[in-house]
Amino acid sequence: MSDPTVVEAGQGRLFRGPTGAPMTVKIDGGATDGAYSLIEYAHAAGAPGPPPHVHEHHEEAFRVLEGELSLDVDGRTITLRAGEYAVVPRGAVHRPYNAGPVDVRFLFITSPALDGFFAEMADLNAATDGNPPAGALRELGARWDCVFTELPGGDGPTRMVNER
Fold first, then answer.
1. Mean pLDDT, the chain, integer
2. Tens digit of pLDDT for each residue in 58-89?
3. Which member of 4, 13, 14, 32 has the lowest number of beta carbons within 10 Å of its beta carbon?
4. DSSP category for residue 19
């Protein structure tokens, strides 16, 4: 019999998320044998979030803890309020962002686990001062089943980190 994984409030692997806000991996793929990751994240008021992207082999589920999360999915915009959930199916182009006037805090689950992608994205953002070249984003995404559908052409910088 194995012991359960317990993560206390305020605990987890903390790093700077793709858009510059603090991101905390609460449950990583190592704890679930790669089945899923559970991540807590936030977007500042008006933050555009990541570029639109698609996962062919991963689902993402979102639960809003505070504020409102806008979620574009295949050309539709959904607004999730505190306590609401949404699941983005495999193959759907999507983008979570904050169109509202207050910060949003949310949990999301990636299945299978994608916490390694976010760790590598944090390293890439740190190495490029939040302006990774589009080519580097495409390469990172290709390795992690994250195809960015709207990036600037060529290999110029892509502003990922949102200013407050």
1. 89
2. 999 999 999 999 999 999 999 999 999 999 99
3. 4
4. T
Give residue-wise pLDDT tens across range 102-123: 999 999 999 999 999 999 999 9
Residue 43, Cβ neighbours under 10 Å: how many?
A: 26
The full 3-state SS of 100-162, as one line of letters, equals CCCCEEEEEEEECCCHHHHHHHHHHHHHCCCCCEHHHHHHHHHHCCCEECCCCCCCCECCCCC
CA angle 100, 85, 150 (to 5 degrees): 60
Owner of token pair 């060529």: 154
Burial of residue 96 (CB within 10 Å: 0-12, 13-18, 19+) is buried
pLDDT per residue as tens digits for the range 5-19: 888 888 999 988 888
**Triad 11, 113, 86: Cα angle to 5°:** 85
- Pairwise CA distance, residues 134 & 16, whole Å: 19
**Beta carbons of 54 and 93 less than 8 angstroms apart:** yes
Q: What is the CB-side half-sphere exposure of residue 16 using CA atoms within 13 A?
A: 14
Give the count of alpha carbons within 13 A of 2, CB side only: 6
pLDDT at 4 over 70: yes
Residue 99 structure tokens: 């169109």
